[in-house]
## 1
Amino acid sequence: MRIMFVTPGLRLGGAERWIATLCKYLPETTIEGIYVTQRAYDTVMVQLCRRLGVPLLVPCEPIEPDVIVTWGVPNIRELIGATHVPVIEVSHNAPGSVPQEYWDAACLQATHYAAVSRTAAGVFPAGHPVAVIEHGVDLERLDHHDSDCRAELGLDGKVALFVGRLEPEKHPEQVIEALVHLPSEWMAVLLGDGPMRDECISLARDSRRKVVFLSPREWVGDVYRAADCLVLPSEAEGAGLVILESWACGTPVVTTSFSAARELQAKWGADLLTTVSLPPNARELAGAILFASRHQDAGLAQALVRKVCSAEKMALAWRQYLEMVVESHRAFRAGLPRGSETSIPAAASPPSENTATLLGGTATCE
């Protein structure tokens, strides 16, 4: 089975980590490559793809995959020209975080629909069956020990950690502002890059508190373990992969009450995740950080995530789903009159099944 991934960019975000994990763990498949439509790359992701042996494709390369997996590219058939290949549109976004017009356009190009959480499945228009296949955590990546992170970075106190893009929707500035309401032993570490980096650096200087800025990196387990609390004050997340990663490293988590966080609480237990109201407030955030660092059962969360949410299990679920898509599409085309394949519109391809194998069992599609 030959798979091609198509993405607008290859930054070090949740969707890009998901694609890298699938490329690493999908068994018995051939990854034809990753086609990046907007040529937006992070060096870390490019190096990772090279290490995994996954080619980055350029326009007009003659590629004939069995299936295309994509997100964020509403005009994919125009770009790729793969008229008769099944296209799976994957949602990594919470409803409302991307204009609905995009999803309407994407659904006209896709033959199948998938999402990384039930929250993310809510972006698709009614009537579209959606396979929900939850995130898996790359434990090998997290367990890699690179250095004594606390000593290397001079982290001599309590650490509030932010991991993600420095952009307005994720409110990284709130982590810095929360320091004012925390005891003097607390400092912040912001791991990521983005349009708010300069603003956050300026805010950190004005705060007169210790704030460490780290560029995106492949091996992040040491950073999670060096922290006393992960802080994710986002307005919306499709799944919250960094929450699972933090739990896998035994680090408590504070986040806002976005819908994917409530989904995680419903699955894992409300006590394992400390949430604050939206929009995030620095004073409330500080109180939640203190509570989580003292009372959250990070050990239980760590054991659960490592048992249930492995990357291998996620890849197996995706392989089974991809095989179903490819075989059903082949059967559909085999039943057409000879010569009629040249006029098959995307919407005429067979619909996806009403259920999909997930981590931990079978769930009805949204």
Note: The longest helix spans residues 311-334.
## 2
Amino acid sequence: MSRLKTGITIVFISFLLLLAIELSLRLFWPQATVISFVGPSLHIPLPDTEIGSLPRPHAKAIQTGSEHSPVEYVLNADGLRDSSPHRGDRTPGTIRVLLLGDSFTFGAGTQYENIWPVVLEQELTKRGCNVKFVKAGMLGGDTRTEYLFLQHIYPKFPSDIIVVVFLPNDLFTNVPSRKGASTEYVQTQAQSVGWFRKSEDLHSIILLERCLLSFDRLYTWLYLISPRSAYYTTPPSDTFREKIAHTEQIFSDFASYCQNNHSELIVVSIPQLFQVIWAVNGYSGPVDVDQIDRSLTKFMETLGGTWITTLPFLADLQKHGIETYYRFDGHLNKSGNVQLGIFLADKLQSRLSSRTAKTVGAGQVR
């Protein structure tokens, strides 16, 4: 009986201790992501039968979390996180760029003025490029939904250049653009909607996860025991080949759309944090974090488009002690956004300057 009492006492004291830790975290160091909406909308994505979801016009929300200060999300009348006014037609002498992507382009976790599309536009303007970006990042998107969204938004904002932002996680859900959304994409959409609700996880559990994920070795090990490892292991898996083929078909559709509308196609590839960590540490094993970029770069060349990979650049920053990602959230942080915006300005400046000079000389765009 005395052992039973001792056991009960230990369990009770442990429970009180864990409860005290949980309450202390909630009061003094909250770990959960919390979204507070301004207005009647319940979440930002607006259900759409064809695309899956569309950004909700005039939505406004404030996000708080343990990895960053409060972030405000404000969408305009077109459902875009873009404070710049855009005319329906093209402005003579100005290059319009339509920027399509997922939450990395939307700028999840970062104030609007610091997201890389805004930094990129400002940098190019400072360097003398007469350019305007239509910032059409959408939460939970993949390459297929971005192609469908292109058809939805391009007629509103005809553009000289279409920039598609690709992330390796697009491969996980991509299916041919003529088919319905994959099961994986539907699940991703559900998660993106849930991302805008208060997390129900215990704050102590979230803190424990953050601590564990702060170790590079453990972070990469956890990633490699997940189904997503199939996209990086060597030799390439059947799953990898299938998803690459699906993605190539979607980019072929992008290229055809651009050609039909006399627009240039550029793809910017942003890596997952896993790839950056692996590249920085030079881990050995049957893993190739560059194989997705290599495969799609070659294919994009056959389409006459441009593929810009950012993995070497972001890995170099990390190697020099510049943290560019939120470790737990996985998105680019403020520093990562700013650095990426400047990097892409370097990549695009000469191309856009040449285009601007031609359009000014001609007195019109195209």
Note: The two ends are 89 Å apart (CA to CA).
